[in-house]
Amino acid sequence: MVQREAGRVNKDEHFELLRASAAEVKELNERLQGIREQEAVLQAERVAKLKELEKARSTRFQRMTAAIGDGVPKAQVARELGMDRTNLYKLLDGQG
User: Fold this and answer.
1) Chain centre to alpha carbon of residue 2
2) How far apart are CA 64 and CA 84, in angstroms?
3) Is pTM beyond 0.70 here?
4) DSSP summary character for residue 8
5) Is the Cβ–Cβ distance between 36 and 29 less than 8 Å?
6) For the chain, is the Cβ count within 10 Å smaller at the N or the C terminus?
7) Is the pLDDT of residue 5 over 60?
């Protein structure tokens, strides 16, 4: 055992401090791993939702152009879609 001097600790106290530090690091690493796993799940969900959004937008565009093709006024189509006419025209100019 190391003799205690001003500011010094004995071996057992060192071991206790080292174990506490190791436990803290381990706990933080486990928490970070849990966060990474949650992020992966959320990222997969985000990708799936983006694909759904792309499909929904494509369907909306097809229905919008069909309605306009059948003579429904563009202003009314925009209103029914809940969008500004300017955005409708931009969609039509960009073709989806």
Assistant:
1) 53
2) 13
3) no
4) -
5) no
6) N
7) no
User: In the structure encoding, which two tokens stand for residue 60, read together?
Assistant: 């909306």
- 8 A C-beta contact, residue 63 and residue 53: no
Nearest one of 84, 91, 85 to 63, comparing CA atoms: 91
Q: Which residues contact 8 (CB under 8 A, 6 or more apart)?
A: 2
Q: Where are the domains of the chain?
A: 11-94
Percent with pLDDT over 90 in the chain: 86
d(CA 67, CA 63): 6
- Each residue's pLDDT tens digit, 53-74: 999 999 999 999 999 999 999 9
Are 88 and 81 within 8 A, CB to CB? yes
How far is the CA of 61 from the CAs of 7, 86, 94, in angstroms? 75, 15, 11
The two structure tokens encoding residue 80: 């029914």
